[in-house]
Amino acid sequence: MEKMLKGQVAIITGATSGMGEAVARLFAAEGAAVILGGRSENKGETLAAQLNSQGKTARYYAPLDVTNPESIAALVAATIAEFGKIDILACFAGKTFDGDDIDPQTAYAATFDSNMTGTYNTVFSVIPHMKAKKSGKVIICSSNGAFNPTTPAYTYHMAKAACESLTVNLAMELAPLGIRVNCIKPGPIRTSFWDELASGDDLENLLDGIAHHEVPMGRIGTADDIAGPTLWLASDLSAYVTGLCLYVGGGIGYIYSHPQSFLLGKTPTGNNT
After folding, report:
1. What superfamily would CATH give domain 9-192+222-253?
2. Alpha carbon of 56 to those of 9, 28, 234: distances in Å?
3. Residue ranges of the domains in the chain?
4. What is the mean pLDDT for each group of 10 consecutive residues in the chain (273 residues)?
5. Positions marked active-site
């Protein structure tokens, strides 16, 4: 098959690690010019140089902070200045602050800024350019945990639930303009997200419990497991799909599995009234 994204320009946020990096690598391999958005200048420049040395097209203009509207605007402006268009936006920037040594209110604000407000501001910085040419694909990253949690991460999951609402509202507005908006809902994927919740043997036991008691396929996912479905949503193979919130979690969300792993061996509190 011909490269599915040949000639297209894609901005990927969160592209310097985890799922965003895997998406950037796959998009570049499929012919897209990838604009790498991420905080780590060293990782961004290293990844761009690596992809370019392989004959692909990648740019890392400057560190991206999605909590700063000026930082987002600078990335979008640099992309338009060099390439003249934005065909694809894949929003994978985000993090949980649940395990950080900061007070709860600070963690709450930081989590919403990084995951919800940052996604909102990024999307609405790009959408005007897609509207101008009446085409484009937007892929937003939520989380299985927004409505089907495997472990409690209250603020993070609340912020991700808002991203799903953004997806369907945007899809409704933009469909007549030829712009498709869809959402990836990752299940348990092995990224640095989990490092905020546990470490060492505790982390391995948590992931093992989730894999064997909740995931019908019986394993924790990888970043590459997310990249493939994201490519499908960015390509013409999904040309008649918009407003979809797609579970990518080894059967989580679609197939009944055992009770949530964080309750195993514990006695639930409260009542069922």
Report:
1. NAD(P)-binding Rossmann-like Domain (3.40.50.720)
2. 12, 6, 18
3. 9-192+222-253
4. 90 96 98 97 98 98 97 98 98 80 87 96 98 98 88 88 97 98 94 73 84 89 97 98 96 72 47 36
5. 156
